Amino acid sequence: MSEKAILVGLITPDVTQEQAYEYLDELAFLAKTAGAKPLRNFTQKLKHPDNKTFLGKGKIEEVRLFAEENDIKLIIFDDDLNPSQIRNIEKLFGEETKILDRSNLILDIFASRAQTAQARTQVELAQYQYLLPRLTRMWTHLERQKGGIGMRGPGETQIETDRRIIKDKIALLKKKLEKIDKQSFTRRKGRQDMIRVALVGYTNTGKSTLMNTLAKSDIFAENKLFATLDTTVRKVVIGNLPFLLT
């Protein structure tokens, strides 16, 4: 069953109302990709995010009341929140409510989509790097063992984390990535005489679908953001010209 969610964004001197709505539409797509069901968007016009609660005092209370009345336990902010803002917002909403920002949501999607060892390691490294400066906030989440959106990946298995442990883990993951990169380089050397063609485009624009058509392959493709996270290489022959399509 999908988790009900509220989406929150800001209209600032740098972000017009139209842009804010576009960003929230994309955030809604991301939320649905992660398995959430956005029920309502909240926006506020401010010169800059409130240092304490991102939104102003009255607006954040409006969001809290709507969440309480509709039993919504997931609030997703379109901008990155700092540790202080997260702590303050959590105090307002209560310990049962998960407070996520865009980066946290995207990392969660990555964690659910990564298939290869390289992709899984890269995502895990990014999650720990995201976690480190937010450790105070995340500690209570880990103790409560929340599941679902925003809690996939290392969050559910590293209850005992502290700064030293996380830094050690980051160092180990970087070494693991270096080893994987060396192995990948060795494999590429064996194919260095072939022409290489790269498909480049924004997420969910049809790169995997195009590769499936050209290479007659069955790479996973779905109308969701970041549906395909792993880098894929296929041999394609057009006319008498063979090449590697990435």
Q: Helix and strand layout, with pairings?
A:
Elements: E1 3-11, H1 17-34, E2 36-45, H2 57-69, E3 74-77, H3 83-93, E4 98-101, H4 102-113, H5 117-131, H6 135-144, H7 163-189, E5 195-197, H8 207-215, E6 234-238, E7 241-245
Parallel strand pairs: 1-2, 1-3, 3-4, 5-7
Antiparallel strand pairs: 6-7
Q: What's this entry about, in short?
A:
With 246 residues, this protein is an alpha/beta fold. Helices cover 47% and strands 16% of the residues.
Q: Could you name the key traits of this structure?
A:
single chain, 246 residues, alpha/beta, Rossmann fold, 2 domains, 4-stranded parallel beta sheet, 3-stranded mixed beta sheet, 7 strands, 47% helix
**CATH architecture tag of the largest domain:** 3-Layer(aba) Sandwich
**Estimated helix fraction:** 40-55%
**Using only CA atoms, what is the Rg?**
21 Å
For the largest beta-sheet, the strand count, sense and barrel status come to: 4 strands, parallel
Task: Walk me through what this model shows.
This protein folds into 2 domains: 3-163, Rossmann fold, CATH 3.40.50.11060; 195-245, no CATH class. It is 47% helix and 16% strand. It is built from 8 helices and 7 strands, in the order βαβαβαβααααβαββ. The longest helix is centred in the C-terminal third of the chain and has 27 residues, at 163-189. It is an alpha/beta fold and 246 residues long. It has a 4-stranded parallel β-sheet with strand order 2-1-3-4, with helices on both faces. A 3-stranded mixed β-sheet has the order 5-7-6, covered by helices on one side. Mean pLDDT is 81; it is low at 137-145. It starts with a strand and ends with a strand. It is globular and about 65 Å long.
